[in-house]
Design goal:
The strands form three sheets. The protein has a six-stranded mixed β-sheet with strand order 6-7-8-3-9-10, with helices on both faces. The protein has a four-stranded antiparallel β-sheet with strand order 2-1-4-5, with helices on one face. The longest helix has 16 residues. The chain has 319 residues and is α/β, with parallel strands linked by helices. Helix 3 crosses helix 4. It is built from eleven helices and 13 strands.
Amino acid sequence: MTSHPVEATGLVRRFGDLTAVAGIDLAVEEGEIFGFLGPNGAGKSTTVRMLVTLLRPSGGSARVAGHDIVKNPTAVRRAIGVALQDAAIDPLMTGNELLRLQAVLHGLGRKESATRTSDLLERVGLTAAADRRVGQYSGGMRRRLDLALALVHRPMVLFLDEPTTGLDPTSRLAVWEEVRILNAEGTTVFLTTQYLEEADQLAGRIAIIDDGRIVREGDPRSLKEAVGDPTLRVEVSDAAMMETARAVLATFGEERPARVGRLAIGLAGGAGRLADVVRALDDQGVPVAHIELDSPSLDDVFADATGRRLEGANSAQPE
């Protein structure tokens, strides 16, 4: 295995006149959880489908587990585990049957297949549901089964595409914990997500993709520190006073992208200036419905890189 289990240079994918991935460079370190963060339609899943050999690149090159994805796709598939967001699972089969079938497809013998199936069902907490049809599984159970199926052959690199989309907070946390355990055991994980909390919790390093291009890359802490000042968010209860509020806030820091109905700035001087802001808004008669000051987040990093907030950014945070 190479020092970079996943590496890409100038990777491009076009669909007719649409360029979904516009020449990205990646280098994933051995044994890390690499987060690939971006909104729906940014090019995350298209990139993964190229890396796991389901889509042929329109340009550029990539190697996974030391093998060229175009020249030697079979070797790539043998070395990786893949859990795609829209993976098709036969609802009429049981979890036990699906895992045994996956084991056979990967060339495991009967005895090893039975042992591996039992171990994985226990690992992902599905032993009690092993003989139930998958069509009766909850969303969280199906995602955990996806994970088990991807691990049958002990892959060098595990690709997880939006692994917790649509899950309730309890199921989401269970998947997070399993990913951490796998990584601690030495598995390199390539994680795509649109959830800021997920990337922040799991990834040692992330790349933010937008419109098919990587706009920021690094470890979450450094990326957040680079944004600088904390973000002050203000909600004004009278829409007619928005521009007045905007003018007041502009004297305290540069405006940052904010959701509809709110204003945001990078508050120069941090929390020590918060009282001054409140007084200034009050002096101008601005009715404030809500005000909050947050340390820089990955949402701020995304906003700084793209000029807008990540839609649904907070929807993955545990309740």
